[in-house]
Amino acid sequence: MRYLNWVIRAALFIVLLGFAVKNDQPVTLRYFFGYEWQPSLVIVLLVFFTAGALVGVLAMFVTVLQQRREIARLKREIRIKNKLADIGDTQRSSIQPS
C-alpha cells in the first residue's frame, strides 16, 4: 500500500510538472491606477489556488472550533450527570433496609 501511495504521488507530480512546463507564457494582470504585473501563467494559477485553499481552510476552521466547544460542553454535562447518578445510587443503597 505504501508503494502504491508513492506511485500515485509521483504520477501526480509528473502531471503537474508537465502542466507547469507547458503553461509558462507571461500573462498581464492589471490593477487599479494603471499598475500591471506580468508573471507566468503557472504562477498566477498557483497563487489563486493557494488563496482559495486558505479561504476554504479558514471557513472550515470556524466550524471546527464551534464543534469542539459543543463537544466539550456535552462532555461536561455527561460528567456531571454521571456524578449525580453515582451519588443517587450510593444514597439509595444506604437507605434500603437489609
Short description:
The chain is mainly α and 98 residues long. Helices cover 78% and strands 4% of the residues. A two-stranded antiparallel ribbon has the order 1-2.
Helix-strand layout with pairing:
Elements: H1 2-22, E1 29-30, E2 36-37, H2 41-95
Antiparallel strand pairs: 1-2
Structure description:
The chain is mainly α and 98 residues long. The chain has one domain (26-95). The protein contains two helices and two strands; from the N terminus they run αββα. Strands 1-2 form a two-stranded antiparallel sheet. A hairpin with a 5-residue loop joins β1 (29-30) and β2 (36-37). It is elongated and about 80 Å long. It starts with a helix and ends with a helix. The mean pLDDT is 87.
What structural class do you assign from the helix and strand content?
mainly alpha
Report the helical percentage. over 70%
Q: What is the rounded Rg?
A: 29 Å
Mean pLDDT: 87
- Outline the low-pLDDT stretches: none
User: Hey, roughly how much beta strand do the residues contain?
Assistant: under 5%
Q: If strands are numbered along the chain, what order do they take across the biggest sheet?
A: 1-2
How many strands, which pairing sense, and closed or not: the largest β-sheet?
2 strands, antiparallel
The H/E string reads: HEEH
Number of strands: 2
- Give the terminus-to-terminus CA distance: 63 Å
